[in-house]
Structures are given as structure tokens and as C-alpha cells.
Amino acid sequence: MLGKFSTKKHKAPEEIDSANIPEHIAIIMDGNGRWAKKKGLPRIAGHREGMKVVRNIVMACDDIGVKALTLYAFSTENWKRPRKEVDFLMKAPEKFLLTYLPELVEKNVQVRTMGSPDNLPAYTVNAVETAVEETKDNTGLILNFAWNYGSRFEMTQAVRNLAQEVKDGKVDVDQIDESMISNYLFSPQLGDPDLLIRTSGELRLSNFMLWQLAYTELWFTDVLWPDFKKAQLLEAVHDFQQRGRRFGGV
Ligand code: FPP
Questions:
Q1: 222 DSSP 8-state letter
Q2: Taking the model in full, what pTM does it have?
Q3: Mean pLDDT of all residues in the chain?
């Protein structure tokens, strides 16, 4: 897809309005494999570099006053990748948190996760759970990892759980409304993202937060995730600030 649509040349860091920062940013971190291929490296080298970028972008979001950052780190469809790559990605949370958890704690970040715990190795679940537990009393930026996450799976679980409540007589069918459905999704307390960023030039949502993105502003860049920097984050936020959000109104 690269080059199929025109994007502006990346400019110097934009002036952003600190009174209008998107509260919740979601990112589809794409292009690690292509970044590695371009350099003649194995795909996992792209993911390794991508982890450093995660750290930098968390800090950049914290700097500008973002309240929540949701990162699409492993999808329910990513199991189809070669075994070696899946193994590397399953170890990524442990590696990432071993390196960066002290800094996240110092910055008052709250680590959260959303997705299915099914089929995940114990070391992956433990690493994430430990970080969630260690940061649960923090009050700063919420860093939410979408891990083994798929939006259709999330909605299917919500429908099942809600149907069970109806069957058990705890919920009346007439009570079901949009806010109740939101509450049955994985991270209702975060609120819907204000801004979605997707890197690498792909123009699709890839089964990510389909319910929650209903009125989210979308921003796409050709930049591959390992090359994504604070300058691009600021460009996305600046662009967000030029948009008129009407939520279906006038
Ligand atoms: C998409 O690029 C990226 C992923 C599927 C994995 C994202 C994971 C990381 C950035 C590691 C961070 C993880 C943690 C826990 C901090 P791709 O491999 O699909 O790239 P391609 O489309 O160029 O092949």
C-alpha cells in the first residue's frame, strides 16, 4: 500500500494546543516486519526495535498529558504467524517490562491489558499481571496493552455474557442499551479512543476496537512503527486538533 495515497511530508514537531489533547489515543503499531526486511534483518528485529518505540511513545504521551494509551500489540489473528515470531512476541511483555517497568512506575503509569487470556503461556500472563498489580495504585497515564485481542471476539464475549445475565434473570432485555453493551467490553472504564493512529501505510482497522472507534478521529501515516517518533505523534495530535468533532450532530 505504500505510496498509494498521498501523505504530507513529515514536518518539524507541530505546535499543539495543550488544552485540547486527545484523552485516549489508540495505536495500531504496524510495519515492524517490513522495517526489518528493508534492513535485511529477521522480522523479530523489527519487533525488538518496536518495543523501544513503545517506551518512547509512552513517555511522549505522558509528556503531553494524554490520559490513556491503548496499543494493539498482539491480535487474535497473529497466531497464524511463523512459530518463531509468535514465540518472540509472547516473550515481548516480559522483556519489555523487565527493562521498562521501573521507569513506568516512576512515571506513575498504570499498566492494563485487554484481550483473552486463553492459549497464552504462563510467562506472558504473569509478566502482564505483575505489571498490572504493581501499578494498580498509580494515578498517571493508563497504558493499556491489547494482547491476544480481537474486536469480534470481544463483542462475542460481551453478547454471551449479557445473554447469560438475561437467562439468569439479572438483566431485562428492555434494559439493554449502548452503554450497557460498552460495559460488557474489555475496558469500559477507559472510554472510547479520541484518536486512532495506524502506522505503515495500511488503511484498515484489522479487527481493532470496532465498537469503540465509532466516533474516533483516524490518522494514518506511511512511517513504519520502528521509525515512529514523538514528532509524528505531535503531528497526529495537531491534525486531531484541526478537526471538528460533531458526533453525528451539526
Ligand atoms: C505489526 O507489524 C506489529 C505486531 C503484530 C506486533 C507489535 C508488537 C510490538 C511493537 C512489540 C511490543 C510489545 C510489547 C509487549 C511492548 P508487522 O509485523 O505486522 O509488520 P509488517 O506488516 O511489516 O509485516
A1: S
A2: 0.93
A3: 93
